[in-house]
């Protein structure tokens, strides 16, 4: 490491010593529990995950319990986290884990990214936090930390410019704690300064939730978790016209989130 990188590492570690955040997934070494947390944390703030994490694990305490659960029960336990396709893919992944891995979470990137809903970033996080593997990965808070410290004058920053710095500064003896420190430092920057990630070439501003398809999808699922229903009743519950509701339902059918028998939809 050069001097600037060493100073960065020192700054991040000092911040972490004073302001370390506490989360239940940081207090466990159980690969399954960490796997669940990483799927939940995709596109979802920690405050929302905190509300569901322990409840979900009580309902599905291990891979086998999740694999044999009905989709309806998994979606019900997931309700409130949004992006409900993740819940379905999580259950699909559990089935594969039982069939191909004896109910255990694999350690290699190749095996992890073969699971539904797991990309390189999630795979790297699972490797680091569950197995203390020195995997190199990037996520939103890590991105913010490096852009702020190393790319102050650049207007557009690519992830492939950041990745060598992540690899260079990585604590290979204790990657788990180092990544926690990085994430906490990056999270602080996003709250106390203009979001550094707006300089990222990969930055996408999330569209407003109110009136979005995401909101309608959530309302549809909540209705169908109660009981099967026809389009008219579903659109009334969603507060949307039948045409838009039907288009969203067709996508959900394609994704396997809902089923249809004649005029009746169900989970």
SSE layout and pairings?
Blueprint lengths: L2 H17 L11 H10 L5 H14 L3 H6 L2 H8 L6 H17 L7 H5 L6 H12 L8 H11 L8 H11 L5 H18 L20 H14 L2 E2 H8 L3 H14 L3 E3 L2 E3 L1
Antiparallel strand pairs: 1-3, 2-3
Which descriptors would you attach to this protein?
267 residues, mainly alpha, Endonuclease III, domain 1, Arc Repressor Mutant, subunit A, 2 domains, 3-stranded antiparallel beta sheet, globular
Write up this protein.
- This protein is globular.
- It has a three-stranded antiparallel sheet.
- The longest helix is centred in the C-terminal third of the chain and has 18 residues, at 175-192.
- It has helices spanning 3-19, 31-40, 46-59, 63-68, 71-78, 85-101, 109-113, 120-131, 140-150, 159-169, 175-192, 213-226, 231-238, 242-255; strands at residues 229-230, 259-261, 264-266.
- The protein folds into two domains: 1-206, Endonuclease III, domain 1, CATH 1.10.340.30; 213-266, Arc Repressor Mutant, subunit A (Orthogonal Bundle), CATH 1.10.10.10.
- With 267 residues, the protein is mainly α.
- Helices cover 62% and strands 3% of the residues.
